Amino acid sequence: MIDEPLARGVSPIHALDARCRLAACLLLSLPAALAQGLAAPLGILGLGLLLTLLSRPPLGVVLRRTAAVNVFVAFLWLFVPAATPGEPVWTFHGLTVTREGLDLALLATVKANSVFFCVLSLLATIPAPALGRAMTALGVPAKFSFLFVFTYRYLHVIAEEYGRLVVAARLRGFAPASNGRTYRTYAALLAMVLVRAYDRSQRVYQAMLLRGFHGRFPSLDRFRAGWPDRVFLCLMALAAALAAYGDWISRSGHA
């Protein structure tokens, strides 16, 4: 299986029902993503950081994933402030940075990080099979849940297959370069990965049928939502409602 460093742990977050964590993540992410002011995303960002601390993740994993997210966010700061019309605050070689552009880039940064920490603390702490069953339990179509679980399960298998093909090509003298031969070789490698992935999918499907698969995965684990799970979900729903209401009030005040 793919390594799940955040799903393995003992914390108040890990002890919560997977369905409640999934529902809470959705409830918190929606007002953060749809907000037009900074107040709601900042509040949810603070809550997401608190939940991340409660989940007790490895610091190195959190820092690496935070950096990966914010590398993409950094590109917004390169283009949005100069591409958004508005009140100029700085001009450099014909490029004009506007106050509206800076505000928009800041809003996007806070939104991205608020959703990221909610996902990191609430979803990344759920093992993939349990997350798939939680999705089905909350009304997500079973086919979508199966697609998610199988994609997660076999991504590393496809990556290993590609690695073996690359090693085989190098043993035959292949050296990557910027030329047509290299591009054709990589195209052939990708084609072989797709063909082998298709063959493997057929074997897996036949094996599932031989084991009596009828559209549902039997599991010995059962979801059990106790009063701590219900209290947690109610608190997260209240926080999401307050964030949405605060954003609506701020928009009404500016209207």
Automatic annotation (TrEMBL):
Cellular component terms (Gene Ontology): ATP-binding cassette (ABC) transporter complex
Superkingdom, taxonomy of origin: Bacteria
Residue intervals passing through the bilayer: 33-54, 66-84, 104-124, 231-249
Gene Ontology biological process terms in this record: cobalt ion transport
Compartment annotation: Cell membrane
Organism: Solidesulfovibrio magneticus (strain ATCC 700980 / DSM 13731 / RS-1) (Desulfovibrio magneticus)
Protein name from the UniProt record: Cobalt ABC transporter permease protein
Cited InterPro entries: ABC/ECF_trnsptr_transmembrane, ECF_CbiQ, ECF_transporter_component
Membrane topology type: Multi-pass membrane protein
Record Pfam families: CbiQ (PF02361)
Keyword Transmembrane helix in annotation: yes
